Each structure stands twice: as structure tokens, then as C-alpha cells.
TrEMBL record:
Keywords: Glycoprotein, Hydrolase, Protease, Signal. Belongs to the peptidase S28 family. One of its GO terms (biological process) is proteolysis. It comes from the Eukaryota. InterPro entries: AB_hydrolase_fold, Peptidase_S28. This is Peptidase S28. GO terms for molecular function: dipeptidyl-peptidase activity; serine-type exopeptidase activity.
Amino acid sequence: MRLAKRYGGLAILWEHRYYGDSQPFPVNENTTASEWKYLTTEQALEDVVFFANSFSSSGIQNVTLDDPLSLPLHPSVTPWVFLGGSYPGVRGTLLRIRNPETIFATWASSAPVHAQVDMASYYKAAERSLTRNCSADWVAVTRYVDEVLTGDDMALKEDVKFRLVKARLSGPRGNTTGAAGLTKEQANSRSDVSVASILMDPLNFYQYYGFAASLLPFCNLLETKNFTQVPEEGGISSVDGIESAFDAYLIALSELDYGEIPGSPDDPATDLAWMRQYCSEYGFYQRGDASNPLSIETSLLSLDLFQQQCDETFSDSLPTWPEVGNINKYGGWDMNPSNVMFANGEFDPWRTMGLASIEDNSPMRTPSPIVPACNTPLEGKSFFGLTYANMVHVSDMRVLLVPDSNHSDFKTVGFYSPISQEQFFTGLGLFQLALDEWLPCFNGSR
């Protein structure tokens, strides 16, 4: 709203087709292939174009003749500016490339603009943020469990499965009510990958809350065995061996109070709609990477497994693999749009698919806070934007959901966010400088 007030604009909150109340068909496990076919990125982009070209302020209450909102709002006479974080940031960026005559400028936060089937890099941000001892033990326990579950010792495999499932079903302060009645046969009936994935449960909220808010509580429990011993600098496994480290991991899994870790509530329809999108066009399969010496995700999570889950969910309505070319035709990592500011968090898992990616197979581009001239992208590998130190996913725009005018409460719509105001005001300030530079040339070539 600050931008709208500063520039005398109108703020519009956009709801994507197939999400929220904008469902042309009921979104559930019974949605058919003929109904899903209208959920594509191209359709979503065209929705914005159609809306912008058709929008009128005539239906807005309390608009007087001398109000700026009474003026024509068509993109040919009024600049439309798109703000979006994560996937909405992708759409805002693609619209600036696809329809520069409609979207004049974009602030894209944490936008994974490069689509890729293999996203084993997703957890690297978390791996980089871990303390040395927690990292060493997490890696060691993950390898140990993978080796046991894929090995030939059936008795050991059954025991490890039972202990892992029991630990996850138990609760803090020795509460085993959730695991009451669990038998080894029941635990062993679970798939190997589902049991191995329990090791990754503490990562569930990392992308939004980072190390301190989501992983540090778990690491403290792990390295102190629930605060019963002094942590070892190199980890428990380096001193007492893998069995002791595994025991400590089980203690941490059971003692971690997941209710105290901030998170957002699941919406089955939203989850299913996004699954449809990544299964059909984006990929982003977050597989395990056995070749990564710091991997904290199970290697049992394979590309084939992700594709199998997609195929089973959506029957015969998907391509063999996600058609990432539908997205990357706009440039992917190499895109260079004008009038776009890209913001990223240093430890955002989705940074790996954004312009600020530092992965080996990326172009290794660098953000520049120098505002480029209107309609003129930066040259070379640089792009206009910034990376927030120590921050994670959409660290700036999530403050926009705060209901109080001072942005100090942080009880946001849908979830609680412990992030600071600094990223919001830093990004806002830079984008305002950019708009001050770009808006005067609106009627020129776009």
C-alpha cells in the first residue's frame, strides 16, 4: 500500500486461477484431465493481460471525478506495476518479457524463473546454514539410514524403521502416546522412502524461517541429547560413533515441539493445484543427491519417484516429464528483462532456480543495486536487484501481509513470521528509486 499511496495508485490483490475461490472446477482428487488442462502458466499470464485491458474503476466505491482513479486505467495510458514473491514473482517477470505493453515494471522476490526437473539443489541452502557439528551428524545419520534401508540385514532394517517411526510419532518430554500400539510389523510395512524421509521432517519450515527459527531448536536437541550433555565441536558421530549419533537423532525427533515451529496451514486444494503445475511445467523435483558429501536428504528420493507420484496423482493427463521449455522459453537463468527488480534471500532454497543462483550449473550472475535506465536491462551477467544477507524465502514481501500499519505485529494472514522489517524497507526503498527513474518515461517505447 505504501507504493500505491506514494504514486497515487490502486492496489489490486490477484488470485490465480484454480486457487482460493477462483476455481473454474472443483479442485480435488476427482478433477479430470479435461478440467486440469486450463491450469497452465500461459493461461495464468493471459488472465492478467485480459484483466488489465478490461479493467475499469467504475465499480470502485467513493471514487470522485477529481480522484486519480477516475482517469483511464488501461495499460496504454496508466503504468501497471506487478509485485510478486516466489511463483507470483515468476509470473510478474514473465509478464514483463511477454507483455511489456501491459506490465510496465515488476518487483520479483525469490522468483525461481529457471524451470528444471532436477532440483537436488533445493536443500543446499539449509546445508550451508547448519552448524558444523549438526551438519556432520545429520549427514552421517542420513547415510547410515540409507545404507541400512537398502542393505541386506533385514533384522537391522526392521529395527531402524521401527525406531524412526516411533520417534516421529512420539512427542516432547517423553510423551509416547502417539506411538502407543505401534508394532515392528506396522513400521516395517511402510515404504523405505517414507521412513527415510522422516529424517527430513525438521526441514519442513526452513524455506520461510531459516536456520535460527526452524533448524536451530532441532540441532540443539540433537547435539546435546536433549540438553543432557555438552555438544561436541565435530559432532557426536566423530567422538562416539554412528550408533550414538542415531540415538541422539531419534531423541531430537521425538523431543522437537513441531507446534512451536512457525508454519503455514496446509490447503489440500492449493497443494494439489501447485503439484499439477510443477508436475506439468516446472519440475523442481527435490531429489536426494548421494554424490553431495554434505547431503542431508535421503538418496531414496529419486527423480523417478517424483514422476511416479505425479503420474499416480494425475493419471494419463501429464507429459512424460515436466515441459520446462514452456517456462524457459522466456530465458530462464539467462533472461534479461528491463524494469524488473529481483530480490533474493541468501539462504533461500529457491535462490538456486533464480537469477542469483550460485549453483555450479548456473551462469553465476550477480545482482547490482544500481538502478538501470528505463526500459534498459543491465549488460553482461549483472541484473538489477539485491540479495538479503542471512534471509530466506520472500523475506521482504511477507511483511506486506501484516495487518497493522506499523508492520510490527508480524501475525500475518495464515502464518506467523519472525522476520524483521529491514528487508521490506530495503527492497521498498530500492524499488521506489527505480520507479522514480522509470515512471517518467512511461509513454516512451516499452
